[in-house]
Amino acid sequence: MSRILPLFLAMLMATPALAGGDVELQNVGSCLAFAVVRADLDGKKGIPDEMLPGLNALKDEFMFRATASKLSEEEAQKIIVKALVDQNTLKSEKGVQALDDAYGQLCRNIAATLMIKP
Q1: Taking the model in full, what pTM does it have?
Q2: Is the pLDDT of residue 10 over 60?
Q3: For labelling, which of 20, 23, 77, 99 has a CA lying 20 to 30 Å from the CA of 67?
Q4: Do residues 79 and 86 touch, judged by C-beta distance below 8 A?
Q5: Would you say 61 and 28 are in contact if contact means Cβ atoms under 8 Å apart?
Q6: Taking CA 17 as the corner, what is the angle to CA 11 and CA 21, rounded to the nearest 5 degrees?
Q7: How far apart are CA 18 and CA 11, in angstroms?
Q8: End-to-end CA distance of the chain, in Å?
Q9: Would residue 30 be called left, alpha or beta, if left means φ above 0 and alpha means ψ between -120 and 50 degrees?
Q10: Average pLDDT over residues 2-16
Q11: How far apart are alpha carbons 14 and 9 in whole angstroms?
Q12: Which residue has the higher pLDDT, 19 or 55?
């Protein structure tokens, strides 16, 4: 988990102040974390080129919703960190299938609304 945190903090810090709090914001943040956890991105290896458009779309949507919710940057980061911790814990305790079962359909639906190729 500690290897993933720097990746997301870097992504979030490179953007304007964020906000968050509503269910849709939580869902988009969960899907952003899901993409990272599912792909085993650890903050040390680079993000595969084919993932960049999807991650950027999720990040942009998250930031848009965060700003609209008027949360601080710290509060927005906490949403992502919590999602990363929760999902990494689920994956390590119950496996990838449990992670897919918990977040897969939600994230496919969000990807479809953002027109991201799965």
Answers
A1: 0.78
A2: no
A3: 99
A4: no
A5: yes
A6: 95
A7: 12
A8: 24
A9: alpha
A10: 46
A11: 8
A12: 55
